[in-house]
Design brief:
The structure is a homotrimer. The longest helix of chain A is centred in the last third of the chain and has 29 residues. The first copy, chain A, is α+β, with helices and mostly antiparallel strands. Chain A has six helices and 17 strands. Chains in contact: A-B, A-C, B-C. At the A-C interface, helix 2, helix 3 and helix 5 of A face loops of C.
């Protein structure tokens, strides 16, 4: 087995192709899992994803325009519907049946545009992650972002699943003291389709952004709860309550900080990815000073991650077959990699059995 | 047989290397058919094309300078004449006979500098296209251009040989109504070394630029006559006469519009080319407002083509073996491709037989 | 045997990795002989060179920082000492023994930081060139530079070993008359580990910079003495004395010009190198107008060389197997290439025998 830390792609899975607001009547070109696709919204308002290549002369459809129920190629005017069928062939309409471009299953839900880039017959919508925090209104105001990373998507996942990087990479933003991350209690476990860890920093000084948001007067019990769901998602719950409020028994109390983050890395290619993330801040509107500051801190921190992860990718590419080491703190990283590899090995059968 | 729409190069043929005015005493570096060459004009005023590599230490001759009857390398001073022979070897003149660089047959005629990049023994000047419109003085004032396209040269030819793209690519410039291009009558035929089509839009509204140039008061009979001559040339005759003047019987009448265009795509490599074009406007000086506007419209339209053709090439390169479709409107495109392929298959024998 | 003029690398040899002043507490990333390394100076003040890749997750150590006796990775905080051993492993200190990165032998001497990129067991410090002109105080004031060349290191050596390029490449700076370089007397010889030539231009007009520096009133006897020491060094002694002072018998006289140059080309890869150079000017401080002008002239001339050498490399890369010609003036060039090739063939044995 190869030592190469660049994970091959899993095709039979749902990935986030875009945020809902990114998909409009203006065609959007994007590369997903090595395929060039065009995303658009037709007259019905439904999102569609087609290969970004007209079957006639290979012109990118993203240079065309949406007309009624389809997208028209900007070279010679052929029109393709959401399912890829040719619905317009100027001057040769009777030949429409000869032409078709590839279409991809799309599900738009909870502000995400999910796509299935593998075998369409295996696309099971029930496998899409439910994320109610994007539909909870004022209780969970959220903000989001989309970054391009020149790195294999699993380096993004690795980074999230080992928080000991916080004190080094994010020393100047959200990091806090390196030692406190090392001293935290940590429980890690494999899940059916991923891995999960929960980390507690008991009776620890709250970071400044937490004080600003919740007005803490003394030490807090702080948690970081991360679940990786293969192939590309990480659901994070982080927060703190003042000492003495039994946080470990009940984290759903008012008067503290409670954040829900959704992370998703969609491969663009084996060596690059789209990183989609949202942060929902319990009862804390994005329009407040604390809400704005939190968003800025997180966005800045992700840029710090990007610098490190892209440098890591570049070093790995100089000798792809040279393996990495897993320290004891990498237990969740190793479990996540194993879950992905399991999914890759079993992907056609597991999906077909559903 | 490969489906790849990127046509391999035909070497034993004449190509345009430059416009005459581009070749001066200042050496010009250019890549033609995958070879790096240097173009210059020596003291005699004759144009020369040599490989752009000194045989001594491989320095590009284009970094040197023209001295008398040759070009002097800027590294150690060796001089090479138009035929590639070494005519100067500082400090070791008796060794001149040991050195030579490759030279290419050149014919300068009618403002074109033609080059033969294949076997010099097969270079037959009688195969060069005669283009009298560049020598017709005030009767055919002309203007010209030279663009670099990041695309296989045949995508430029394809584009010219299927005019149904006009309504889509050039909608905002010279395109007119898409439907009128589809409705035109079209006659297509193979020729000995290419393909030809003539298209008539009878009793149609003249485009604004035609009205400005010829003062048309009503509908016109309009023609587009295109001839591809393998491997790289397209000769175009376009124009219009008012309805009732028997345009189909005699296009050589005054009082209308008559344009002669010369298009030539010289491969730079398999995936890029030089596009040379000229437009001659019958009895309409380039200095008039109508002449200027026409030139600007055409130059703008060719930039629109460039955008589309380069995007097409990029899409093709992502999967070279995936074929293109030929619609019925592509008859001349298919004939042109076939003529080129015939030339490629037979090139050494046909040329040798002359 | 390949004709390719791009010389493969010799690994078992000392190369200049940096000037001393370039190596500080701020980690410096550099590629040497195809390896990415990090250079730094730890708390002891000693220079160190490690591979630029943490053994944990492959993050570049150059993104980290020097802490005490080692360099700390900026991703998860591991620390490595000058010998590559792990001396810090946050939260898992008992596992230090499991981790190590590659280190390279370093010798810092006479303002050079020398590195041995091959088998460390063969690194013999006695093979390092002694260069006393960097330790001679006011007698030999010197200035230095470091350029990046996109060229195989031997093209830099070739350039130095055939001075007939001076009249062409440096016509506008230090070149002088092409003919005078051709007319000079030249003695060339192979040495044990390189090649040497000495060139005399007897009773010749001194160049303006020499007149400015030494106040010559008439013609001079001028010498250029170059010794190549494989794989990467050239030691140059150039100067002039007025005619009648027996320069050929004794060049160590006051009242003339005497320059000592050290040139060194360290491969970055097979197709690029670092060019380190210094120029020492006998009894002429760098702060004088003549000293400044000399430095500027030389730095400008090396930029002219860079332009030509990089163009030469690009031409060679277009057809790597096409050989170069050696003119009679290339005798020292040919001897230098042969010395390098001899070193490459015998490198493991010769070194092992010491």
């Amino acid at each position: 087995m190869s030592n190469c830390p660049i994970e091959p792609l899993v095709h039979n899975a749902w990935y986030i192709a875009a945020w809902s607001h990114e998909v409009t009547e203006a065609p959007l070109a994007r590369r997903l899992l090595g395929e060039d696709v065009v995303l658009f919204r037709d007259a019905s308002g439904d999102a569609a994803i087609l290969e970004d290549r007209c079957c006639h002369r290979a012109a990118p459809l993203s240079l065309g325009s949406v007309v009624g129920d389809g997208i028209q190629c900007g070279y010679h005017g052929m029109v393709f519907g959401r399912d890829g069928a040719c619905i317009g062939n100027p001057g040769e309409e009777d030949d429409r049946g000869l032409y078709r471009v590839r279409s991809f299953p799309v599900v738009e839900r909870q502000h995400f545009v999910w796509v299935w880039m593998g075998d369409p017959g295996l696309a099971d919508q029930s496998a899409i992650i439910d994320y109610p925090f994007h539909e909870a209104g004022e209780e969970w105001p959220f903000q989001f972002g989309h970054y391009h990373y020149a790195a294999n998507f699993m380096f993004v996942i690795d980074n999230l699943m080992d928080l000991t990087h916080l004190g080094y990479v994010h020393g100047s933003t959200i990091g806090g003291f390196p030692q406190s991350h090392v001293d935290a209690t940590l429980e890690t476990a494999a899940t059916e389709n991923g891995a999960r860890f929960i980390r507690w920093m008991m009776a620890s000084p709250p970071p400044p952004s937490f004080v600003a948001a919740a007005g803490f007067q003394g030490p807090v019990d702080r948690w970081s709860d991360f679940e990786y769901v293969a192939p590309g998602s990480v659901l994070q719950w982080g927060g703190a309550l003042e000492v003495g409020r039994d946080a470990t028994e009940n984290r759903n109390q008012d008067g503290g900080v409670s954040l829900r983050l959704f992370h998703h890395a969609t491969p663009e290619s084996e060596t690059s990815c789209h990183y989609f993330w949202s942060v929902a801040n319990h009862n804390c509107p994005a329009t407040t000073a604390a809400g704005k500051q939190l968003y800025k801190d997180i966005a800045d921190a992700f840029m710090e991650d990007k610098t490190m992860i892209e440098a890591q990718q570049a070093a790995v590419l100089r000798n792809r077959e040279r393996g990495l080491h897993y320290r004891r703190h990498d237990e969740a990283v190793a479990l996540a990699r194993r879950a992905l590899q399991r999914m890759r090995v079993t992907e056609p059968r597991a999906a077909a059995a559903e």
